[in-house]
UniProtKB/TrEMBL annotation:
<feature type="signal peptide">
    <location>
        <begin position="1"/>
        <end position="21"/>
    </location>
</feature>
<dbReference type="InterPro" id="IPR029058">
    <property type="entry name" value="AB_hydrolase_fold"/>
</dbReference>
<dbReference type="Pfam" id="PF05990">
    <property type="entry name" value="DUF900"/>
</dbReference>
<protein>
    <recommendedName>
        <fullName>Alpha/beta hydrolase</fullName>
    </recommendedName>
</protein>
<keyword id="KW-0732">Signal</keyword>
<dbReference type="InterPro" id="IPR010297">
    <property type="entry name" value="DUF900_hydrolase"/>
</dbReference>
Amino acid sequence: MRLLAALACLLLSGCISPVDYGDVRHAAYVADPRCTAQAGAPVDEAALPLFFVTSRLPDCRTEAIALTNHRGDTLRYGRFAAPRETEVGGKKKLRTPMAFQNEGDWWQALQAETDRRQGRVLLYVHGYRETFETTSKDAAQIARMTGFDGPVIEYSWPSQGEVLKYAVDETNMYHDVRHFGDVLRTLADRPWVKEIVIVSHSLGARLVIPAIATADRLSRRAGRATNISNIILASPDIDRETFERDTADDVLAPERVERGRRVTIYVSLKDKALAASRVLHGYPRLGSPYCFDPFEAADLRAKGQPERCYVKAVPGVTVIDTTDVSRGSTGHSNFLRSAAACRDFVDVVDGKRTRPERIATPWAYVFRLIPDPADPQPDDNVICHRTAGDEED
């Protein structure tokens, strides 16, 4: 507990540390015409198969365009491929092949790709402590691992990519609520999009949940059925009680659940990042089955059950507890790191609602993942389709 409190204090120090504007005027970063995509400009779609939308400020001063951790002046659209290690200044750094695309052209290309497939689109929203490179790496891994039968879109907001900038990330995430909401509403309004699969990680859940609620309200007013059906929250850094209170009336309203909407939540008691967030915020996070109520914990002990407390039962919600198969230094990205969690995640993205590897618990909507006795030490990297050079979380 002392360690978590110390980490929370460090996170708070990020709150009072100013964000440097930098030595360059932000206007200078985007002065080059390459930062403003022209209609009809060609994009090598074969080399850049994945889609992105970002509110990050680009840096177009050098030959290779990069996306910074500053807020941009507008949303930008483009295409990208999996990052690769590139030598920069004598050092190897991760770089994402990318190109901006005119917004209208981007939507046309997305429609063409969607029409060629099954009408499904996967939208990935990252969390805390990410750069465009790390986010792109995860989005590309999701595309590889799931073999998703439609376009994969990465939404990249200006996370700082630093441990001590949690409060800055939180501020930028809330600043981006309108941007992301506009993108999701536009996507949900497209008649050629039959199903939107939303995957959010960590702090990204706080962008996703309110945006879905708003998109639902607009769909209802227009008399349209929602196409947002499969929502996956991996290690969600959102207040557990707030989720219980609010989603039952909008995101998981009975009519939505009856039409097939479902929310799958991946949680872990070994998630150190969410433990620190709990200390910082004072209340448990949705992605951690921490028992905030000591009396509830005592009742579980008396019954001989693990001391794990989950979100209350909400129709449409399934909880997958990855505590026993946790991986990485923080246990905050098991859906991309642990073989058991990766297999489960792939099936959920594919629309499957059961897996034989899930272990039942006293709660009908909660399942545990445990090591496979026949394969107690699986090759996580192979099963999760991680590439050489991927770092632990």
